[in-house]
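Example for tutorial group B:
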């Protein structure tokens, strides 16, 4: 499994910049079928999908009625990424911080 190292995205103009202790994660494979596990089981709907970078679980975003990705987040499952093509960020639910891939040297 490859490893992605993330860095916290700075917030312009913020007096205190966010921090995060969950910056190194494995890259789980894309799930099949592609959809929120809880919504698929219960007949719900989602707006966007988020994948847990610890276990690969797919849940729906906070704009979705179920907010299953947020509900899945807990210690050890802190960081999720969007599954939309071209999206290259992640969100740490624990530290409430946007993350972006660190530049490779």
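The residue assignment follows.
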């Amino acid at each position: 499994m490859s490893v992605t190292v993330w860095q916290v995205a700075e917030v312009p103009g913020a007096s205190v910049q966010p921090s995060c202790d969950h910056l190194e994660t494995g890259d789980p494979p894309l799930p099949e079928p592609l959809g929120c596990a809880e919504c698929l089981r219960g007949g719900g709907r989602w707006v966007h999908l988020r994948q847990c970078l610890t276990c690969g679980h797919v849940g729906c975003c906070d704009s979705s009625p179920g907010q299953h990705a947020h509900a899945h987040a807990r210690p050890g499952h802190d960081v999720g990424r969007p599954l939309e093509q071209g999206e290259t960020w992640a969100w740490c639910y624990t530290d409430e911080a946007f993350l972006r891939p660190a530049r490779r040297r």
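Strands lie at 3-8, 24-26, 49-52, 58-60, 79-82, 90-92, 97-101. Compare this with the pattern of hydrophobic and polar residues in the output above.
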